Hints:
This protein has 15 helices and four strands. The protein is mainly alpha-helical. The protein folds into two domains: about 1-155 and about 200-335, no CATH class; about 160-190, no CATH class.
Amino acid sequence: MIYWLLNYLHENTDLPGMRIGEYLSFRSGAAIILSLLIAIMFGKRIIRYLRRQQIGEDIRDLGLEGQLQKKGTPTMGGVIIILAVLVPVLLFGDLSNVYIQLLIISTIWLGLIGGLDDYIKVFRHNKEGLKGRFKIVGQVGLGIIVGTTMWLSQDIVIHEKRFETKSFDIVDKSTGEMERHTVKFVASTTPDKSAKTSIPFLKDTELNYNTLTGGNDTAAWILYILIAIFVITAVSNGANLTDGIDGLLTSVSVPIVFVLGVLAYLSGHLIYSDYLNIMYLPDSGEMLVFAAAFAGALIGFLWYNSFPAQIFMGDTGSLTIGGIIAVFALCIRKELLLPLLCGVFLVEALSVMIQVAYFKHTKKKYGEGRRIFLMSPLHHHYQKKGLFETKIMMRFFIISLLLSALTLVTLKIQ
């Protein structure tokens, strides 16, 4: 809204400085500052309200140190994150941008699913919350919306670059001789409506889902929708499993969001995308505003969620965080980077699957179930080994930083 207001004032008045709304750097900076302030200032009021309403977490005794002390801590704190994301984006984002529209829809959609789950747990006193199949249906529905929009929207295209070379002569000052130099530059770009994605580590190599379907464009996009469903479901549930100790999911997600914002900006810039040999996606740079607001909201929420947590995000936050990350990666055609970038989510989810599968296998084979980990997800395994919550959180955060740095390095390895 402020973005449109500034543009209107720039085009229709002589007021100085109104062009500032055109700059992503200004709007992204404003978004992260505002989201931080909203999370910190309004977070305290929301926590007080939740306490008055006795909306507290019902803790099961799993034999973890300090666990029962958290009983009654307000939950559904994901509302703070959602509020701190949406308000800055609505104010400083270009709401006509299809990528921003998709991210706003995803935030609200998954926030409602997670909120319903928390509502059932807290107000209906049902520890199981929303049935798993209903969560999956919601995630599948979002995957269909995102995949179909990517397919049908004429505003979502990849621009294929056409290169030309130009030669010119330069005098070498040391020898006085004329030297001929040749440069390669982007002469023009051509819109390409295709189901392509980036392949990490390989230069000038992209995966076109069309090749997997024998050249059938419709089948390629249907395959893409199925992949979108899988990515959203997997990352959203992976984030949900990671949310187990104070500040863990929040801190781990900040570097991920930062990297996605950088990739969105580079992908939406013709010169940078050419230099780095990545897809040129016009208008994708606008997602930097959303990424800035998202990062600010997470950092602001960490103010209250760090040990000892004054509030838990609940599924309202965890499902939303994972879903936004997945949709963001799909929009910038970087979903194949997620196993590396979201490596913490992946390992947490795998620890649960391995534990369950091994327990069932040994129970069938030996008559009693055995475990590989002391407890799953993986962060609880380290709790059982005696590591304090803050140490586990910081180590997982450092690992996330490392994985995020490696993800950015892939741009130059190509």
